[in-house]
Design goal:
This protein is α+β, with helices and mostly antiparallel strands. The chain contains 15 helices and 7 strands.
């Protein structure tokens, strides 16, 4: 079919030189695919190099502590990916003797590996005839064929998967999958693609109908919840502070943070001081409190966090305190790590 020939020819001329494309090692491909879930290539690349240097094999990753993995993952976001990555590495190393499943069906059994990731590993490592369908593929196919099916619906995913399978050359599924994803990432981009230079500009139905910016159709909207976090940064005369691990399920599970006061809105210094004295640290003598900066807005996929940091100086020594040097060795959410990095703990 002309579609896959034109697409693959474009890919061979325009593809980026990415490290996970120069191997069929399922460990490296799995790492890259997990890292690139909801993450841009430019952001994920340094993490890929860091992980493959620190953990050259799946056994090295399996033998690391979760804290080591989370620390190296710090800043990449969606930390459940890192926790699942670690658990899967342990399973592959200990239960499968370090060998990844060699089929789409069995790859799906791995924790944190969904249909897209399983298809990517199966085709790139084992050249299995299974199409990958991600946001790039939805966009390319919906525009080229003028498909108005709502991509938020499970039925639509089946429709696009069947279409991709029909278009995919059976003798080289890996290069087709790489090509269509790369085409969506570089050429058929979400907003204002340059259709004048597109190799499909004579056959793309959406372009002929002037519907490029209307596709793909996605009706499902994410409801965003606003939350208000007040981090209490204790400081004694030696500069020690106190941190805690987030053990509850939800965002930032098993990462560290300062003691947290969550409120229903942005609050002032008097509110925080009262809470600190009466509830959070009633056993300490408070010498002073100061807001380190105005509220920082940290956006997550379903939540908007309004974060304030409050330095609270105390008379006594912080029990189980952490000094400024050791503080940076713990895995933190990036918004807290950035605060520490800027040394605003000394505000």
């Amino acid at each position: 079919m002309d579609f896959h020939n034109i697409l693959i020819n474009w890919y061979l001329q325009n593809k980026r030189d990415l490290p996970w494309r120069n191997t069929v090692n399922p460990y490296h491909i799995w790492l890259s695919e997990i890292m690139l879930q909801q993450t841009r290539v430019a952001q994920g690349m340094p993490y890929f190099f860091a992980f493959t240097k620190e953990f050259p094999t799946v056994f090295d990753l399996a033998n690391a502590s979760e804290e080591q993995v989370l620390k190296l993952w710090q800043g990449l976001g969606y930390y459940s990916r890192a926790r699942n990555l670690h658990k899967t590495a342990q399973y592959v190393a200990n239960e499968l003797d370090g060998k990844f499943p060699d089929s789409y069906k069995n790859l799906l059994k791995l924790k944190g590996v969904g249909e897209y990731t399983a298809a990517a590993i199966a085709s790139f490592s084992y050249n299995e005839e299974v199409p990958v369908v991600d946001g790039n593929v939805f966009r390319v196919l919906s525009r080229y064929f003028d498909i108005e099916s709502d991509i938020a619906l499970p039925a639509s995913k089946k429709e696009f998967t069947a279409l991709a399978a029909q278009l995919m050359p059976k003798d080289n599924p890996a290069i087709f999958n790489q090509a269509i994803m790369e085409f969506g990432a570089l050429q058929c981009v979400p907003k204002s693609p340059n259709c004048e230079i597109c190799v499909f500009n004579e056959s793309c139905v959406a372009l002929q109908k002037k519907k490029v910016n209307m596709l793909p159709v996605k009706s499902k909207k994410i409801k965003v919840t606003n939350r208000f976090f007040n981090y209490i940064v204790l400081e004694d005369f030696s500069g020690n502070t106190l941190i805690q691990k987030r053990t509850a399920k939800g965002i930032w599970h098993n990462l560290y943070e300062f003691p947290l006061l969550e409120t229903e809105k942005i609050v002032d210094v008097d509110f925080v001081l009262k809470a600190v004295k009466e509830e959070i640290f009633s056993s300490y003598t408070i010498l002073g409190i100061e807001e380190c900066e105005s509220a920082v807005i940290h956006k997550l996929s379903h939540q908007r966090l309004h974060i304030q940091f409050w330095k609270v100086r105390i008379k006594e020594i912080v029990q189980n305190g952490v000094n400024a040097l050791d503080l940076k060795t713990f895995p933190f959410p990036i918004v807290i790590y950035n605060f520490i990095e800027k040394q605003e703990i000394n505000c």
